[in-house]
């Protein structure tokens, strides 16, 4: 008999949805704060990347990914993608809340501005020219010198696992980053997977700001839990690839967050066929 997601439910669960690997850092951050939470990871390889797509298309795709996690009875769903949060968060909350809290992601411009400028924001080409980013800068960093930088090809290089391409894209973005920048905001959820390499390229004088820990803490607040790293460890309860049951691929081991998730166990629960 094929096991269903709830055949042996012993943990509470949180689902993460994204077009690709950007969700790894966010799932890893939550797993670090509350290792007893089961994780459901929903990627959309058939339709990635979301950045160039029309807003209504992104909304349709992220809603479909979120719906695919519902048989796992998640206690919350995290939209671990800035583009999908912009275009799909409102629709997801209208459909799923209050039964299932939905948490979005926002580039960490506010804490970077508080720390002091000049600030650079690395993002995809679409995001750097977007009204969304301009609105965040106007709201949280209006009095701070801020420089959007298109990290061309970096998300795609991370997704492919091409290490040489990752280094080349980081080097290009570093060259486009003005001298004297003190704070760097990672404006794409993929970039945090190579934050150590970004720091190495920019030097010790730049502080990197990312949002996985803040999102993990917000997720715990939404489901009424406090951080507690001492609780018994659960792991990855399911992997969905464009709605289809899948497994954690060994290629995720190229990134520290992916290695930690691989160690936590892959897909103990599968959808019934």
CATH arch. level architecture of the largest domain = 3-Layer(aba) Sandwich
Radius of gyration: 18 Å
Portion in helices: 40-55%
Strand order of the largest sheet: 4-3-1-2-9-10
Q: Structural class of the helix and strand makeup? A: alpha/beta
Distance between the first and last residues' Cα:
10 Å
Please report the total strand number as a whole number: 10
Mean pLDDT: 90
Q: Under the CATH scheme, which class of the largest domain?
A: Alpha Beta
Q: With helices defined by DSSP (H or I, 4 residues minimum), what is the helix count? A: 11
How many domains? The number is 2
Residue ranges: pLDDT <50 for 5 or more in a row? 266-273
Give short descriptive properties of this protein.
273 residues; alpha/beta; Rossmann fold; 2 domains; six-stranded mixed sheet; four-stranded parallel sheet; 11 helices; 10 strands; globular; disordered C terminus; isomerase; Asp/Glu_race
What do you see in this structure?
The chain is α/β, with parallel strands linked by helices. It folds into two domains: 144 residues, Rossmann fold (3-Layer(aba) Sandwich); 102 residues, Rossmann fold, CATH 3.40.50. Helices cover 40% and strands 16% of the residues. The protein has eleven helices and ten strands. The strands form two sheets. A six-stranded mixed β-sheet has the order 4-3-1-2-9-10, sandwiched between helices. A four-stranded parallel β-sheet has the order 6-5-7-8. The C terminus is likely disordered.
């Amino acid at each position: 008999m094929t096991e269903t997601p709830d055949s042996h439910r012993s943990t509470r669960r949180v689902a993460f949805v994204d077009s690709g690997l950007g969700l790894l850092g966010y799932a890893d951050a939550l797993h670090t704060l509350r290792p007893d939470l089961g994780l459901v990871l929903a990627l959309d390889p058939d339709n990635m990347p979301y950045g160039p797509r029309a807003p209504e298309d992104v909304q349709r795709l992220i809603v479909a990914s979120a719906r695919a996690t519902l048989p796992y009875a998640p206690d919350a769903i995290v939209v671990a993608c800035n583009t999908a949060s912009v275009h799909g968060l409102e629709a997801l909350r209208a459909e799923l809340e209050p039964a299932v809290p939905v948490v979005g992601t926002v580039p960490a411009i506010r804490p970077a501005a508080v720390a002091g400028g000049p600030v650079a924001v690395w993002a995809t080409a679409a995001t750097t020219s977007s009204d969304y980013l301009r609105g965040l800068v106007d709201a949280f960093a209006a009095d701070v010198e801020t420089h959007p930088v298109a990290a061309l090809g970096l998300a795609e290089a991370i997704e492919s696992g091409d290490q040489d391409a990752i280094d080349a894209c980081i080097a290009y973005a570093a060259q486009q980053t003005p001298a004297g920048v003190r704070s760097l905001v990672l404006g794409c959820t993929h970039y945090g997977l190579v934050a150590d390499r970004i720091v190495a390229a920019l030097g010790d004088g730049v502080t990197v700001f990312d949002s996985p820990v803040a999102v993990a803490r917000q997720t715990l607040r939404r489901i009424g839990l406090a951080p507690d790293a001492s609780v018994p460890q659960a792991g990855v309860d399911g992997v969905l690839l464009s709605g289809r049951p899948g497994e954690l691929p060994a290629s995720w081991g190229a990134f520290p967050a992916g290695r930690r998730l691989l160690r936590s166990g892959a897909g103990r629960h599968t959808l019934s066929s």
